[in-house]
Design a protein that fits this description.
By secondary structure, the protein is an all-alpha fold. The protein is built from five helices and no strands. The protein has one domain: 434 Repressor (Amino-terminal Domain) (Orthogonal Bundle), CATH 1.10.260.
């Protein structure tokens, strides 16, 4: 937020939530985490690329796996294969 020169109050106003709620989410107070919807609204408010937040990328991967379950086998093969070790 510093790079965009916007404070919590301004960002909260842009995404339509209270500054207190945004502050708690940012600090993960009480185990609060941003919803995918809030992450998207923050991303848009800050004019960030779609893949800026890891949560957005994770949601895209999950959605793709739901659409193409055959990829799960390929991913498991990658996970199960020994890592390449430089000799």
């Amino acid at each position: 937020m510093r790079a965009r020169q916007i404070g919590v109050r301004q960002l909260a106003r842009k995404v339509g939530i209270s500054p207190g709620h945004l502050s708690r989410v940012l600090r993960e107070v009480g185990g609060r985490h941003a919803t995918n919807e809030l992450i998207e609204r923050v991303r848009m408010a800050l004019d960030l690329p779609e893949d800026y937040f890891v949560e957005s990328r994770r949601c895209r991967v999950v959605a793709t796996l739901e659409e193409r379950p055959e990829l799960i086998d390929q991913i498991e093969e990658i996970i199960d294969s020994p890592a390449d070790v430089a000799s």
